UniProtKB/TrEMBL annotation:
Keywords: Hydrolase, Manganese, Metal-binding
Protein name: Peptidase M20
Record Pfam families: M20_dimer (PF07687), Peptidase_M20 (PF01546)
GO molecular function: metal ion binding; N-acetyldiaminopimelate deacetylase activity
Cofactor: Mn(2+)
Length: 413
């Protein structure tokens, strides 16, 4: 059974306790930042996580979905359970920022703040293991390979929810567009489904000075790029959010040759299956006919790699109220983002919610957004991120007869 009511006067989150662990958490975050690892290669990170959890006395399971780690904390006798998830992987980006803890792994960088997410979840594990008037099981899920490799799905396929049952699941992502102290979520879609397409245009090739003897691969490909940009504006209901962006065009290697082939790659974002179907069908039709009009052939590969991230209504409410209890200015997000997230796979299995946690300076266009080579996670939000995770647990695993509060109820982190 899951509960959606948040215990507004719980006494388990203690500012002085968070302050006690904060220097260690900040040092840990900097250490993770200095040692970023790409998806399914988070061997050092997973070891750090597992050792931290073991030190707390949690039951620790490594190698779940390759490099994933699950820590289990049980209290009381209830069969209720909640899953809290953080991602551990970094990106193939050369860091341009110069913090003291700059990446020591050339070409790899924590440019999405997963070092911060991992740190905040470890902080919540620390706090809930030290104190916490809850009754049930908390599964701390540290997943690999969020950045495009579906690490969440790898963990699910490896039996995540059968081995570690969860009534509901929750995750947080730092959000540079929102200021520190602000959090948002929403029921229903919060992040888009992400598809990738690759189109190969082929069948031409010849001397650049004899265009009458060969179809022009480059001309057809250029025209195809333009036509693909009409898919959303001409085929999709203008009130439905959707996106198609061409991100790569490759072709040719000489100034005097018409290349035999050229390729186009791009991404599609949408929030419902019907829109996704229309975009794929339209893309396939245009990709076939535009090259054909030039006497060329085309091969299309279309891969739907992440579904839309859909929060369940009750759990979105839980996430929002937990954020308020954690001292955040929390509200429903007016609209979803077209970025994507593989937590979506977990939300296909379990009710749950995903929260955006502000980490910016209030500028709606941050200087270093997510995935930027100068991006850095903001350590100032570690305490409130820890508290949000803890508040979620307290709201979901309320004891039937709450015991006496062992800790000073002041909240002052
Ligand atoms: Zn990212
Ligand atoms: Zn991310």
């Amino acid at each position: 059974m899951s509960r959606t009511a948040v215990n507004g006067d719980n006494c388990l989150i203690n500012g002085s306790l968070i302050k006690e662990i904060l220097p260690r958490l900040v040092a840990l975050r900097h250490d993770l930042h200095a040692h970023p690892e790409l998806g399914f290669n988070e061997h050092r990170t997973a070891k750090v996580v597992a050792e931290f959890l073991r030190e707390l006395g949690l039951e620790v399971h490594e190698g779940v979905g390759k490099t994933g780690v699950v820590g289990v904390l049980r209290k009381g006798s209830s069969g209720r359970s909640v899953g809290l998830r953080a991602d551990m992987d970094a990106l193939p980006i050369i860091e341009q920022g110069t913090p003291d803890y700059v990446s020591t792994h050339q070409g790899v960088m924590h440019a999405c703040g997963h070092d911060g997410h991992t740190t905040m979840l470890l902080g919540a594990a620390w706090l809930l293991s030290k104190t916490g008037d809850f009754d049930g099981t908390v599964n701390f899920i540290f997943q690999p390979a969020e950045e495009g490799q579906a690490g969440a799905k790898a963990m699910i396929d490896d039996g995540l929810f059968t081995r570690f049952p969860c009534d509901s699941v929750f995750a947080v992502h730092n959000w540079p567009e929102l200021p520190v102290g602000v959090a948002q979520t929403r029921p229903g879609p919060i992040m888009a489904a992400a598809d990738r397409f690759d189109i190969r245009v082929y069948g031409g090739g010849g001397h650049a000075a004899q265009p009458h003897l060969s179809p022009d691969t480059m001309l057809a490909t250029s025209e195809l790029v333009v036509q693909l940009n009409t898919v959303v504006s001409r085929c999709i209901d203008p009130t439905d959010p959707a996106l198609l962006t061409v991100t790569q065009v490759h072709g040719g290697f000489s100034h005097n040759m018409i290349p035999a082939e050229a390729t186009i790659t791009g991404t599609v974002r949408s929030f419902d299956l019907r829109t996704q179907d229309i975009i794929e069908a339209s893309l396939r039709r245009i990709a076939e006919h535009v090259p054909a009009a030039h006497g060329l052939d085309a091969e299309v590969k279309y891969h739907r790699y992440y579904p839309a991230t859909i929060n369940s209504e009750a759990e979105a409410e839980v996430a929002l109220r937990a954020a308020k209890n954690a001292g955040l200015q929390a509200s429903f997000a007016p609209k979803p983002a077209l970025t994507s997230e593989d937590f979506s796979f977990m939300l296909q299995e379990k009710p749950g919610a995903y929260l955006w946690l502000g980490q910016g300076d209030g500028s709606p266009k941050p200087l270093a957004p997510l995935h930027h080579p100068r991006y850095d996670f903001n350590d100032d939000i570690i305490p409130v991120g820890v508290r949000w995770f803890v508040e979620v647990v307290l709201s979901q695993l309320i004891p039937d007869s709450p015991g006496d509060c062992p800790i000073n109820p002041s909240i002052s982190s």
